[in-house]
Design a protein that fits this description.
Helix content of chain A: 25-40%
Number of helices of chain B: 7
Mean pLDDT of chain A: 87
Low-confidence stretches of chain A: 571-579
Mean pLDDT of chain B: 66
Distance between the termini of chain A: 159 Å
Number of helices of chain A: 20
Distance between the termini of chain B: 128 Å
Structural class of chain B: mainly alpha
Strand order of the largest sheet of chain A: 7-3-2-10-18-19
Largest sheet of chain A: 6 strands, mixed
Oligomer: heterodimer
Shape of chain B: rod-shaped
Order of helices and strands of chain B: HHHHHEEHH
Low-confidence stretches of chain B: 126-163
Strand content of chain B: 5-15%
Number of strands of chain B: 2
Chain lengths: 579, 163
């Protein structure tokens, strides 16, 4: 017998089926949604999740330090902090600006302007000191944060020592001038990064996923500069400029055997505004000038080495000489030739312009020009610093007899101090033209030399005999001639004084001179060659009176620093005196 | 016949049950005791593992903090090192020497090379020689090398020099 179901049963059953299908549909919706999220939105949500739990930290790369030849640091870098703000989060702008202004010593108005901008990020101050950063963190100003910069802050612990030589860096720690610019690739490092997972409190999860790209610190640069000699050079130069009320000056000290620059100093008279504006410029390298009588050495070296003129040959050195319709006179320093005829030694010792002109005319422009090229005046020295100046030498086909005569005593030609110094170094070292350089080696954090900075070997430009003869002549200049104030007691000094007129807009300016002295010590085995140049001295004008004493003061201290004892000749003299 | 095979006698059924079920051991009478111990030991191991794991994580967090402190100290040390260099700047030292201590650069220095006889006599004593307004002390140690070594010993090494 078949059972008969009531209508209520049918309704219940229908409801059950309906609910079943609804639930089933819901499940399918959920499943489809899950599939959609997992397959199609997978990457998007992964990225959102990563941004929440992953953090990327930039690892600062420390810029390499610069050391002197004795390992004393001249420039160093430290981790730098900067102050940023989100103007939208800063509630009390006036209070925040006041606190920041006091802490950072920045104008209140400047900060208020920045905090009033309609932006979410502003720099308040870049690369502040650690003390300032600590102070701001303690103040807990809402909307203001301290962040670590990807590049550090540059410190020069020796204050202004060698500032024009070292150069400086920009806000992003990039070299902009001097050694910092030239060796920027080696000094700058490479930032790294850490990608890590962090928890809800923002702390790094130790066992989480880490990806580390280590930062590479920059290499350290060991230079040839001697901190003490550099300091003495700057001090004596400033003293000399102050005493003579000169406009500015330059000193370069170099090892003649290998071209190591021991010191390169620039200074200007404190009230000289134009010099203050470009005090960061390395005038020792960039400026060209008419060398005056210091160039006579170049002429006589060419004459002796060429063999065209005899060593004891006499040349007219009277009061004046007419060349090309113009009269050439000796300097008005009271020195005159008794006979009116002088040999090369006499011309150099007493700095006779007329004698030099006569010699130059006898030597000939072709030979002289050839030797100027050989001595490196037609090209750059190749020093590892930016902005080296080029000599101004008229082309050979434009040389008139008058030009030959004036170039013979260093007027009508413009050279850089470094190029002239290099020639004197060649005389000091026996005839080799060296490549001046500042960089010595690249060193890593452990102090190990990673790379010795090589420079081309010196090349012979004159014979050793010529060099020895010129050394003797230059020694006589100091002992008997115009360079007596360059004598360093206990040491034999060779050198030449120079007093050249200043050229402005193509004409010589009356009353303005450049006083200079170039010399080396000790003559028998020179350890340094020094050039001193003083621009527009006012109280005295002669190189022998202005520049030679500066040379003497620098050489005396530098020899003491180098622990070079006096020559045996002086010692013997003292022993004889004791007896 | 089938029906007869399926019929169990009451007594046999009971006895079968009695055979099938041995008399219960009082010791094993508490159901799942072994499983309880098993679960308990697993749970304990798990708890110990988690506790130690949490401690290790805590230690790692502390190591991170210590590393961060070390970095800060290293930075501070570098800053102090720069301060030392600033304090030892020659210009500062000279300023203090001149202004505060009243010192001056000697006008001349005298270096004496003692003869052999003089050196022997002076080896055990100290001598002082004045020059101008400044005093220069000359010490004569036992070994004359310290006083007057050969000049070559003090010449700078020139790695790239004259051939």
């Amino acid at each position: 017998m078949r059972r008969r179901y009531s209508s209520s049963f049918h309704r219940t059953k229908a409801r059950g089926v309906f609910v079943f299908y609804v639930v089933l549909l819901s499940f399918f919706i959920v499943i489809f949604r899950l599939v959609y999220l997992q397959l199609f939105k997978n990457k998007e949500f992964q990225a959102i999740a990563k941004s929440q739990y992953q953090e990327e930290i930039t690892l600062q790369a420390k810029r390499g330090s610069i050391f002197d030849r004795n390992g004393n640091p001249l420039a160093e870098s430290l981790v730098a902090s900067s102050v940023i703000a989100n103007p939208h989060q800063v509630k009390d702008r006036e209070k925040a600006a006041l606190l920041l202004s006091k802490s950072l010593k920045i104008s209140y108005k400047n900060i208020i302007e920045k905090l009033s901008q309609d932006t979410y990020f502003v720099w308040i101050a870049r690369k502040i000191t650690e003390e300032e950063a600590q102070l701001i963190m303690q103040q807990k100003i809402e909307g203001v944060e301290i962040i670590k910069e990807p590049t550090g802050r540059r410190f020069y612990p020796k204050e202004e020592l060698a500032s024009s030589l070292l150069g400086y860096t920009g806000v992003d720690d990039q070299g902009l001038e001097g050694i910092e610019f030239f060796y920027d690739e080696e000094l700058k490092g490479k930032t790294g990064k850490i990608q890590m997972e962090r928890d809800a409190f923002g702390r790094a999860i130790p066992d989480g996923k880490w990806e580390v790209i280590p930062a590479m610190n920059g290499m350290h640069l060991a230079t040839t500069v001697d901190e003490t000699i550099q300091y003495v050079a700057e001090r004596e130069l400033k003293k000399g400029i102050k005493e003579t009320k000169a406009a500015s000056g330059t000193v370069i000290v170099m090892d003649p055997k290998n071209g190591n620059i021991l010191a390169m100093a620039n200074a200007s008279y404190p009230d000289n505004i134009s010099s203050q504006n470009d005090k960061e410029k390395n005038h020792a390298l960039t400026d060209i000038y008419e060398p005056g009588s210091t160039f006579k050495t170049v002429l006589i070296t060419a004459a002796v080495d060429s063999g065209k003129l005899k060593f004891n040959e006499k040349f007219y050195s009277g009061a004046s000489l007419v060349v090309g319709g113009r009269a050439i006179h000796n300097a008005d320093d009271g020195l005159t030739s008794p006979t009116g005829q002088e040999d090369m030694t006499g011309i150099l010792t007493y700095s006779f312009n007329v004698g030099a002109a006569s010699l130059g005319l006898r030597l000939g422009k072709e030979t002289f020009y050839e030797y100027l090229d050989k001595f490196g005046f037609m090209s750059l020295t190749g020093i590892d610093l930016p902005g080296e100046g080029e000599c101004l030498i008229p082309p050979l086909n434009e040389w008139t007899p008058l030009q030959l005569a004036t170039i013979s005593f260093g007027q009508g030609i413009a050279v850089t101090p470094l190029q002239l110094l290099r020639l004197y170094a060649a005389l000091a070292n026996g005839g080799y033209l060296v490549i001046p350089h500042i960089g010595h080696a690249l060193v890593n954090d452990s102090g190990e030399v990673q790379k010795l900075l090589g420079f081309p070997s010196p090349s012979r430009i004159i014979s050793e005999k010529t060099a020895k003869e010129l050394q003797a002549m230059l020694q006589k200049v100091v002992e008997e001639g115009t360079g007596k104030k360059a004598i360093v007691p206990g040491y034999s000094v060779g050198g030449k004084t120079g007093t050249a007129q200043v050229v402005e807009q193509g004409a010589y300016v009356s009353g303005k001179y450049i006083a200079s002295f170039v010399g080396f010590v000790p003559v028998e085995d020179p350890v340094m060659v020094v050039l001193v140049k003083v621009n527009e001295p006012k109280t005295m004008i002669w190189g022998g009176a202005v520049a030679a004493p500066i040379f003497q003061a620098i050489a005396r201290e530098a020899l003491w620093q180098m622990r070079l004892l006096p020559s045996s000749k002086v010692t013997q003299t003292f022993k004889a005196a004791q007896k | 016949m089938l029906a007869a095979e399926k019929v169990y006698f009451f007594d046999e059924r009971i006895s079968f049950k009695q055979k099938a079920l041995p008399k219960s051991d009082p010791k094993l009478w508490f159901p799942g005791l072994s499983s309880f111990f098993l679960v308990a030991s697993i749970a304990l191991t798990l708890v110990i593992y988690l506790t130690l794991g949490a401690k290790i994580i805590n230690i790692k967090y502390k190591l991170f903090q210590m590393d961060a402190n070390r970095s800060k100290l290293a930075e501070h040390n570098a800053l102090l090192s720069i301060k030392v260099q600033e304090l030892s700047a020659l210009s500062r030292i000279e300023h203090i020497a001149r202004k505060d201590l009243g010192m001056d650069v000697p006008k001349e220095r005298i270096i004496i090379e003692p003869s052999q006889i003089v050196r022997t006599q002076m080896e055990k004593t100290q001598a002082t020689k004045t020059s101008g307004s400044n005093s220069i002390k000359l010490l004569y140690p036992n070994s004359s090398k310290l006083l007057y070594p050969s000049a070559a010993a003090f010449h700078q090494e020139s790695p790239v020099g004259i051939p």
